[in-house]
Amino acid sequence: MFYRECGNYKATYKEDMAIFPIPLDKWGFFIILIFAFLVVPFMANDYWISSIIIPFLIFSLSALGLNFLTGYAGQLSLGHAAFMAVGAYGSVILYGRYEVPFLLSLMGGGLVAAAVGTLFGIPSLKIKGFYLAVSTLAAQFIIHWAITHSKWVSGGGVYATVDTPPLYIFGWLVDTVVKKYYVSLFIVVAMVLFGKNLVRSRTGRAWMSIRDMDVASEIIGVSQFRYKLLAFAVSSFYAGIAGGLLAFVYYMAANIEEFHLHLSFKLLGMIIVGGMGSVLGSFLGAAFIVLLPLFISRMVSSWGGLFPADLLANLELMIFGGLIIFFLIVEPFGLARLWITVKDKLRLWPFPY
Amino acid sequence: MAIDWLFVSEVTISGLLVGLMYSLVALGFVLIYKASGVFNFAQGPMTLFAAFALVSLLALVPLGLSLIGVLVIMVVLAYTIERVILRPLVARPPLVLFMATIGLGFFLEGLAQAIWGTQPRGLDIGITDTPFTLAGVLISRMDLFGAGISGVLLFGLVWFFQRTRTGRALRAVSDDHEAALSVGIPLRRAWTITWAIAGIVALAAGILWGARLGVSFSLTLIALKALPVLIIGGFDSVPGAIIGGLIVGTSENLAEVFLGPSVGGGIKDFFPYLLALVFLWARPYGLFGREIIERV
Amino acid sequence: MLECKNVHVSFGILKALNGVSLHIEKGEILAIIGPNGAGKTTMINVISGVYHPTPGRIFFEGKERTFMPPHPVAALGIARTFQNVALFKGMRVLDNIMIGRHLHMRSGFFSQGIYWGFGQKEEIRHREAVERVIDWLEIEHIRKVPAGMLPYGLQKRVELGRALAAEPKLLLLDEPMAGMNLEEKEDIARFIIDANEELGTTIALIEHDMGVVMDISDRVVVLDYGEKIAEGTPEEIKNNEKVIKAYLGTAGRR
Fold first, then answer.
1. Contact flag C99-A209 (C-beta cutoff 8 Å)
2. Could you tell me the fold of the domain covering B5-111+138-282?
3. pTM exceeds 0.90
4. What ipTM does the predicted assembly reach?
5. What pLDDT, on the 0 to 100 scale, is given for residue B135?
6. Chain A interface, mutation test: which of C73, C82, C123, most A Cβ atoms within 10 Å?
7. What 3-state DSSP class applies to A199?
8. Which residues, including other chains, have CB under 8 Å from residue C177's CB and lie 6 or more apart?
């Protein structure tokens, strides 16, 4: 009754092409935004914000980046975490060592990540599928080695970790959890909006055409060269920004060990479960991964310590793996499609027909 | 600067031997790629699983029985995989299957960790690692044993695929599912058999590498090392896996020894991937792989 | 408008085209016919830039473009449809046709991302063009449907829409009516003729249905075993001995 699409006529193409054509969707989104900006910082406790919400936001951003490359453009990438690392180190070094202002440092880190990502994406011009995946995997190993073996990068310590100095933005010290939250929120929202617009325009269509049938796409006039490399560049840029954010507001350091191969696979899992080729899906997938361990530990503790603590981490892995398989079989378009299906049912509620 | 030829030959031989062991790991991937058209990301965790299972069984029963026990486990695993994962996803594009194997990999890894914990275990198969000399060249006994077993398995499997009826049927399946079906080859059984063989290969690889490095999660990383082997040799070629493995083993050793010191070491970790990248440029489908031709 | 001189194409030892020369006049409808395997699709692929003649030369609007890869060829104003429908199955019909406008869209990376202003104006402008094509092809009712879910006949029509949306100078159609019933064929034939007359598009089509070929084409080129065996008006071709032999074999006449 409330959630209607019929009777909802669009008078102009402009309205039809809006991000949220259904009024309830649009209002819902604004409410979420208001909630996020104004309510959350005051209602949620510090633990929730710093350990759940901030990583959720940042990993969503990274997952979105991967979604551009793998979900929209169809280029499988197994090295996304490595590009995040490049962004992390890049931005921390720019800010800490060269005293470049924060936002510029962050962008700098993103741009370096984009450059590196494009480099490793060059093979995509000649090869597809798993072969391409191996190239991105190579990125993961090579970048790991490069960062850990480069004195210039790591500052010559035993470990390749570079600590972040205190964060000042326009002279404003970002030290509390709430401030960090706002920084992350602003950046993530801005970049997600940009990404969503990109994806519903020419670039998004070009990417999807490459994914669906690249030979035909080229014949129609989509330059494979330009758009494949663009996908790698944009995707790695987002990864780099996400990595930088992690270094500045979450880990408080750029640490290569946090951007390991497993994370690359986790990110891939996020977009599979959340929905490939969907902006919302990136968020749903990230939320899922961030919340899953919590959910499991709650479940386990409510069963009164029947299982040893080790089991938690293992169960998480097993459930994650099992769910990936489950979603692939049952709903290959992930949670995002599930959400659309629920909305469809709501359209007709309470009349099933 | 004088080159110590003895040293070079030792490094080379050791590389060749290790390379053969990489080939064995790569073989597991090739088998599944040939049968199901998918890169089995879970091969690494499968290797780990098999190795752990063996270690546990060895504590209870002698080697022979343990081997049979693990074999049974791997066959059951293959059957389960076929039923739960392959069958529902039969009509989907290979990318979906690949992602399913990622999920499977996570699942098996978690399961292995849950059952056996995270402590590395030693695997003693009765080979002492005292090196012996052949014409003045130092050779590791372990390396030789590993290479020997790998070699036997590899050539045995090549023979199996080329000469036996089942082997030929499996090759038909990998070429074209539907055509194979139309000639009366039971697809599901073919898949189960292939995955079971891959499981056995995983077991062998697990034993050899486990004996060499200890049974722990680094075994899954060895599986990833197989990827450059596959790039160089071709994803669907058994001889390619052999040659690719030899190339990777030798080159990584040589690179580590001769280039390593000047860049701070650790080259072994990524050199094969660098080589793979070069191959991706020059010969994307590997030395023996088949090119994918699309008709417009 | 388009001229192919002495085009040879080989796939390994298989010679697909053996010295074929043909030309397409501006504003005409040219039909390329021939038995299966004659090399018709290969010829179209050569014109699209997917294959390059070895040897041979291609001229478009007077300028040589023999070795041009596919996407600059598209930029010249050549659009096509495919024998096995090459729609982008994961995208909606609307998006499939919008991508036909790809080369006409002028919004840069940042205009798209910021959207407000130029990016949005471009989207709306091209959406209007696409809607005109959708109206013209009478497919309004399916515009939001994912292309992969459409029945075959409609898919072919959407593919035609995608090619038309590019406002091409030369339109190449590879068996646009394959697998259709009589009614659907009439519809498509009507669209082809309308595109030619109303929009002035030059059209080259591969087709097996002789009735259609006779009815709508201005000129016909006949290929067999990679060679051109006849060329002329539909009337001339109908009575050409070589053509009849190619289709029916030597025993008996139609």
1. yes
2. ABC transporter involved in vitamin B12 uptake, BtuC (1.10.3470)
3. no
4. 0.88
5. 67
6. C123
7. helix
8. C156, C184, C185, C188, C189, C207, C209, C212
